[in-house]
Design a protein that fits this description.
The protein is of the alpha+beta class and about 325 residues long. About 60% of the residues lie in helices and about 5% in strands. It folds into 2 domains: about 120 residues; about 120 residues, Alpha-Beta Complex (endopeptidase fold (from Nostoc punctiforme)), CATH 3.90.1720. The chain is built from 7 helices and 6 strands.
């Protein structure tokens, strides 16, 4: 698949504009290169922040799942409450009617009967009524118990939701701290090194031979070339690495998880020597992911300060095939 010339020009202009912005935000004043710091050191510093970003993404998934469970339990409670109120009203009405018909009890009127057959028939009817009422009471007790259990479940899941939300907020603050550390490392490089470090390659100079759904996923990923990286980004105009892969495959009609590790677990593991366009490629520590294009090239969302770009297979060591 070869990008049209007009699209390449558009991405080139967008990339140039983005670099001008990056120049103001990320190329930091430096008295000179610190010989103790290399671009690889800076890259590793950004990867630490990205690893924490994936942890936050996973917490986001857990928060969504917990909220869905809370919604389901709330629906169950509303349903059980309707049954509870109906059964309670029916039992209450039966007791009131019994007192109106026989204030001293339903069997007291039978004692004055001189007809043995009438007495036995009436007694049988009273016993049947009491048995029916006992069944209704038992059902009411079960409904009441279920309602109580569901309410306890609801409180537990709300506590889980609050804890996950708090942990996500804490990790987001930690991401910012790691990000500031990475920027400080970047500032220790020369201006020329910083400019090179923040340059994204958005050129596809070969035909991508993808097929089937992989062709659609590749097309989507390539259409995002030049768009900025953002922690937690899942489109439509900014991305993190796993967000881009999830949406690319969603565009092909395939649902994959949100986070790198689960994404690779959902894929079929394949040797790196057997990679085909559309396959997922990840770091061994599951901190970063991209999509293989062929010719040893990968499209991925790298890190803040850069945009969705084309890169080599360096660092990627685990392959997975979707579908």
């Amino acid at each position: 698949m070869r990008l049209p010339a007009t699209r390449k020009r558009r991405h080139g202009i967008a990339a140039a504009a983005a670099l001008a912005l990056i120049g103001g935000l990320f190329v930091l004043p430096s008295a000179g290169a610190d010989p103790a710091v290399t671009p690889k050191d800076v890259e590793n510093a950004f990867h630490k922040a990205e690893a924490m970003n994936e942890q936050v993404n996973q917490l986001g998934v857990e928060v969504e799942q917990t909220q869905a469970e809370i919604d389901d339990i709330s629906d169950d409670i509303a349903r059980d409450l309707k049954v509870y109120n109906r059964q309670k009203a029916e039992l209450g009405a039966a007791i009131v009617q019994q007192q109106m018909d026989a204030p001293l009890g339903p069997s007291i009127s039978l004692l004055s009967s001189d007809d043995p057959d009438q007495f036995l028939a009436g007694l049988g009817a009273v016993q049947a009524l009491n048995s029916t009422r006992a069944d209704a009471l038992e059902q009411f007790g079960e409904t009441s118990k279920e309602l109580k259990n569901r309410r306890a479940q609801l409180e537990d899941r709300k506590a889980d939701l609050a804890a996950a939300t708090k942990e996500a907020d804490t990790k987001r603050a930690a991401i910012q701290a790691k990000y500031q550390e990475a920027k400080a490392e970047l500032a220790r490089l020369t201006a020329a090194q910083q400019a090179t470090f923040n340059t994204s390659d958005t050129t596809v100079d070969f035909k991508v031979e993808a097929s089937g759904r992989a062709k659609q996923a590749v097309a989507f990923a390539l259409a995002q070339l030049g768009e900025p990286y953002r922690y937690g980004g899942a489109g439509p105009n900014s991305w993190d690495c796993s967000g881009l892969m999830q949406k690319a495959w969603a565009a092909a009609g395939v649902s994959i998880p949100r986070v790198v590790g689960p994404q690779m677990s959902a894929a079929k593991r394949i040797p790196m020597s057997q990679l085909a366009p559309g396959d997922l490629v990840a770091y061994s520590n599951m901190q970063h992911i991209g999509m293989y294009l062929g010719n040893g090239r990968v499209v991925h969302a790298p890190r803040p300060g850069k945009s969705v770009e084309i890169t080599g297979l360096g660092g990627f060591s685990v392959g997975g095939r979707v579908g």
